[in-house]
Amino acid sequence: MALGADGPGYYKAREAIEVLKKSEPKSKTQASDIRIEIEDDRNSVAVMLNTIFALMAVIQNNWSERQREIILEFDKNKCSQSECAERLDISQSSVQRGLVNGNYYAYKEAKDTVNNVLKEIGEVRV
After folding, report:
1. Is residue 125 within a helix (H) or strand (E), and if so which, with residue range?
2. Which long-range contacts (CB under 8 A, 24 or more apart) does 46-52 make?
3. Whole-number pLDDT of residue 33
4. Using one digit for the tens of pLDDT, what is the confidence trace for 25-72?
5. How would DSSP label each residue in 32-67?
6. What band does 2 get if pLDDT is binned at 50, 70 and 90?
7. Which in 44, 55, 89, 105 has the greatest CB count within 10 A?
């Protein structure tokens, strides 16, 4: 235990860790290893973000190795499908199929929503 580790942020982090530990099933893969806790009256925002994290994890857990390779390359480089295909030495239609079958666009929308909400939270000063 760290000396002086006290305060609302510490307690929210500890609470999030405990929730993750309790929800960790012993016989199957955990849906999400990310959890956020927010102090004050914005608990519904934390619930929404945690739900989005869980859904994003479900999408990721269903990616094949090839879909993961395509999606990570496409997302990391912010390139077009054609550029991604060239980088991976595959056809553009293979990239398009990998993105669609991997539910990339729903995943990206969820990720963008999380980023926007976190920016808004960061701008709010209490």
Report:
1. none
2. 48/117, 49/114, 49/117, 49/118, 52/110, 52/113, 52/114
3. 75
4. 554 545 677 887 877 677 888 889 999 999 999 999 999 999 999 999
5. -S------SS-HHHHHHHHHHHHHHHHHHHT--HHH
6. low
7. 55
78-90 residue pLDDT tens: 999 999 999 999 9
Prediction pTM value: 0.70
> 13-46 burial string, b = 16+ CB within 10 Å, else e?
eeebeeeeeeeeeeeeeeebeebbbeeeebeebb
CB atoms within 10 A of CB 70: 27
Residues 6 or more apart whose CB falls under 8 angstroms from that of 53 comprise 32, 34, 35, 36, 114
* 18: enclosing H helix or E strand: helix 8-23
35-39-42 Cα angle (round to 5): 85
